């Protein structure tokens, strides 16, 4: 209170002195400063009389008032992260000032690893998304808040499953078997798994900084090889206690389903198939009667529902003197559109900071605890749904489930409702940090963090009449734990126009993973579910357990230098040691420079240029994330083939034979990514137009991959080995642009967008492996990856890893049409055609997108705010394996097919070719939001009511459910919604959601 009174007294004195210096009579001016995007008040904005040292700052509700000379014509209003604005006040007693956020604002403070810097002082490629720019609505994962907003960053959540994992890729594919996801760091503590990001609600996040190039991320060494996402949580501030609340309710509906045949169409399909096979009408009618149970069931509709979700976030923050704190609690109940699925999440978070000893000592503590209960989809249900004839009913006349048997398929509704498939996840992250300012320019500190992640799953399938006469159960407990610690030194000083910052860090990381997985089948009773495994016969009880651990120890140093905030140099070197590798230690240097041309004298008269910065960087990072912790050793175990468990009647015991299962590789070492980046950042026309352009050229060397060996061969016990062989390149361009079209006190209009392109190419798949006995040349012309497959279809590979091409390149026959009998025809390459795709000429086809993009427009009028956000992909291709399977007249021989199968003219089962390779570019209206901000009252600092819609529509030539599939692993660019693979048998249809909510804060 004393400090507040002192501040008020000082401010009053300044205003009084300003009054004495004025030669004219003063006049009062009042107004409000707010965010032009969503209308929320801005506290602490500077309001200055233009050309005079007279001003004030805005209050928590955004309001301000001051006395100014009568001849004052305009005010200058500014706030960090927003473009400065000059406001005319002539003839006005009260004004509204809507500040425009500057996504490329060079005054923004960004986290660069073990420290912060203003963006204009950063030499590497860094992008920032603040909370005000997050996507709103019913999000499946926090990562969706920045989806499509950062050039080069691709966030994919295939389908609409609230329990689905995420895929995050930055600047393309960087490895064949190593880690692909960027490192996610929350307030200085790395998450052990990108999917843990979902446990940090967007309401608790202040901003997210993305370190994209090697010169920026090299400070994180091996863990930064795929980029770094720094998550900065909201903190408390000194002053009165503030309470904030956000609540919303959402409705989700399925966005698109397959056009499967109904009863009449199915009968027509059976009839057509019988005619193609030359069957008599009597035989056709007999087939129909054998299946017909009198129903007309849409099995997709039977599995789907309109889902309701609720979300609540409550926080309290404040502080006084050198102490501040923030505590928050969240509750999310998110029903899935598939029956008997969804999640319920409760989270508590707390952080506090205390300064002491004349502000030389800073103590920071934080804690995160989140519990998530999941009800999971059962993997086969959509396989069953797309296969089951519509003439089968869901229920019998007595209300019981109708059961049938067909190659182990069963009633999908019965399966989903009666099978127990659920999990409980518990995440706890505890962090403590102490920093001490030993001298004016020198400080040191210690950070420690504990990360505990526990996942417990429960599965029980009861006896289903007709389908199976036994039950099965499984209980699994899994732990991912880690310990992090670092000791850091920092030196900051200035001499004249020279500014110097040096950092040194020692870092220790310990990781462990263990699980226990018991199971059983043929239990006598179903009523105890999975919690009576001992009731099963001993021969049908199983148990599995596992534990692994590894360490990562690092030393690093970095210095930043700039002269007159005009010329910048940043350099760092880091040594990482990993217990996973034979050659444990890797050295990862980086260097970058920047030139702020806008500070040069030759541009001083170019008043339209506010900021102009040119930068270039180079760096090396390493990768060992996704490999097995004991990959360098020769291991023994129960092999897949050869020796196996067997029952010894003499001893009445089950005996297990062991054999070598893995070759040793003492020379296993770090993958290396060499990155180069050139960038231009700019702000012009009073920062109305801001943006940046990046060009990058990265080379990944010593790629980790399991290669085939000649066998038998000296020193090798199996015919594969994990080795460092091969290289690949990533080249691309990224651009972001933001423009304030209109800046007025009661109306603003802002537009912005981003564009990125990346070309990934494998340049080598050859190298050497030395096992201590002999040196082997490892080389392969191509490595098979994903395949086209389905019920009754071939599983031949159609994508490959081939030197000289994009990873997962398609290699297949070219479809040219149908012959007179309805058989698919393929190009032979010599002007002739064939119906045998295995004899046709095969062509390489690149499925990778040509570019990705996103753009937004935001408008405000007085208290109203309206925003649209679009994102899209151009030039992508997806192999529609699902339609190849379902658009098949032979499906009507006992299963169900699509309506297209009746009209596409194909008389035989389709085979793999580019007939099913479809253009999959798209434009999606990802988010629409409308908000109204009520005027502040005595009780409420702000009150906003909002409406949001997600996945409003998508424009695409792709015929599948959605063109945004999970591109990773061996199933890249193959839509396997029906058969399995990247989307899996459990592919969950994408949703369209609508959210209504409000947010408020009060003191």
Automatic annotation (TrEMBL):
Protein keywords: Cell outer membrane, Membrane, Signal, Transmembrane, Transmembrane beta strand, Transport
Membrane topology of this protein: Multi-pass membrane protein
Any one Pfam family match given in the protein's UniProt record, by short name: Plug
TonB-dependent receptor plug domain mapped to chain residues: 119-228
Gene3D superfamilies: Carboxypeptidase-like, regulatory domain, TonB-dependent receptor, beta-barrel domain, TonB-dependent receptor, plug domain
Cellular compartments annotated: Cell outer membrane
Signal peptide (UniProt feature, chain positions): 1-24
One of the record's GO cellular component terms: cell outer membrane
Domain of life the protein comes from: Bacteria
Family (UniProt): Belongs to the TonB-dependent receptor family.
Designated name of the protein: TonB-dependent receptor plug domain-containing protein
Organism name: Niabella soli DSM 19437
